[in-house]
Each structure stands twice: as C-alpha cells, then as structure tokens.
Design brief:
Elements (H helix, E strand, L loop, with lengths): L8 H31 L5 H28 L8 H7 L11 H29 L3 H22 L5
C-alpha cells in the first residue's frame, strides 16, 4: 500500500532514490569502520578498538533509520551488497592498519556524506516538499558532523 502522506508519488520516488544512495554510503562506511576496528594495531589499540566500535554502532543505528525512512515513504529499501556498491559515492581503499590512514579514510567518507546531506536537506524541503525527510536528514547531518569532529581530533597535522 502506497503512503498517502500529502506528497506526490513522483516526489516520494525522488526522495527514496536519494535515500537509497545514502543507505549505500552508510553501509560502506559502516563496513570500513568495522574493518578498521578488527584490524587496528598500535600502542593505543584498546582506545582505537573501542573508538571504532562506538562509531560503527552509531552507523548501524543510522543504517536502520535510513532504511526504515525509505519504507515509511512507501518504497522498499535496498539490502544487497552488490546494490550498495553500485549506488555508493564512497570508495573502498586497499587494506591498511596505519591508524592515520584509517582515520583520514573515515573522515573523508563522513565529509562526503555530510556534503550530500546538506544538498538533500534543501532539495527535500524545497523541491520535493517532504519536510519530514528534510528534518530527518538534518538530524543525520548533526550525527555525521560530530563523528567527523571526533575523527578530526586524532589528526595532528
């Protein structure tokens, strides 16, 4: 049954398509963060192991919320890894256990997502007339800005 929430189907479809890309980006970032959690090394292993765990747990919640938002507006959520890789804006670099590279990779991904969220906020409100999803992605923007700030705090140069 389609959602009858006062927004035209063509607008809801456009919003859902953008959210599918966001979902793919979140999934790739989650996987990358989880990989770094598993493979971190160094004299601050426990700190970084826990730090990455906190970040991927927050990303797991975001992923669920994005997928559920897509369902709320009447569309099915992408759920196959192959589809995520086709849709994502993020890259999967070679494996690294160098913490500075890990942090830079994750920071770059958060900042890519942040820039995309900024565009979605105004597009969803102004063009698609979906204030609920615009508000939703505004909340995600704040979460990613905080996660990026935490990553940035580890960069000393």
């Amino acid at each position: 049954m389609k959602a009858n929430i006062g927004i035209g189907e063509n607008h809801l479809k456009a919003v859902a398509e953008k959210l599918q890309v966001l979902l793919a980006d979140e999934q790739v970032l989650y996987t990358k963060t989880r990989n770094y959690h598993w493979n971190v090394v160094g004299d601050n292993f426990m700190e970084m192991h826990g730090f990455y765990e906190n970040q991927y747990n927050e990303l797991a919640e975001i992923i669920d919320e994005v997928a559920e938002r897509i369902r709320m507006i009447g569309h099915y959520s992408t759920g196959r890894l192959a589809d995520f890789l086709k849709l994502t804006n993020l890259l999967e670099p070679e494996y690294t256990n160098v913490q500075s590279e890990q942090i830079k990779n994750l920071l770059d991904d958060h900042e890519t997502i942040i820039r995309g969220l900024r565009e979605m906020i105004t597009e969803f409100a102004d063009k698609q007339k979906d204030l609920g999803t615009s508000d939703f992605v505004t909340g995600l923007l704040r979460q990613h800005e905080k996660m990026a700030w935490m990553l940035r705090s580890y960069i000393t140069k």
